[in-house]
Amino acid sequence: MSQENVEVVKRFETLMVPSLQEEDEATAQGGFEQILELLDENVAFRPTPSLPHGGDWIGHDGFFRLGEAFSTAWELPTGVEFEYLDGGGDKVVILARFDSVSRHTGKTVEFKMVEIVTVRDGKITELVPYYYDAIPIVEGAVLLETA
User: Quick check: 40 and 125 in contact, CB under 8 A?
Assistant: First the structure.
């Protein structure tokens, strides 16, 4: 079952970037409909709360609100690299790396993370990213006030 779970996660990630980059709204909507078919209706995305797009994002609506929060803080990622590992049972591990530019500071920040994805009955039920170093992400996204 685990290799099937890896394929579900690969399909999810493969659909994400083109759907975000698509300028034609109808085509983008079609991509997001395919993505939603891979997500359990109560899916949980759990980026660390200290990030500008952090917190618990639950369900399909939470998935879209997370996307809005991320795109408010960041431009579309570039240099996206994923490595998928069978985590055994219902777990898939993603080693992820990409760059993104802060919409607030203009700084380019490297995101390096491990994502633990839970897949049950062919649907993603949870995605938890663990960042190699979240401080550059926080500093890159926020204009810090100086005394």
Answer: yes
Nearest Cα to Cα of residue 43 among 65, 67, 59, 61: 59
Render pLDDT for 1-20 as a digit per residue (tens, 0 to 9): 589 999 999 999 988 866 55
Amino acid residing at 137: I
Question: pLDDT per residue over 30-40, tens digit each?
Answer: 678 889 999 99
Average pLDDT over residues 16-31: 61
* DSSP per-residue codes, 33-96: HHHHHTEEEEEEE---TTSTT-S-EEHHHHHHHHHHHHHHHBPPPEEEEEEEEE-STTEEEEEE
Q: Let me know: does 94 contact 9? Beta carbons within 8 Å.
A: yes
Question: What six digits make up the tokens of 94?
Answer: 């993603």
Lookup: tokens for 30: 């079609």
Cα gap 99→112, rounded to integer Å: 9
- 86 DSSP β-pair partners: 92
Would you state the structure tokens that stand for residue 127, as one six-digit string?
């995605």
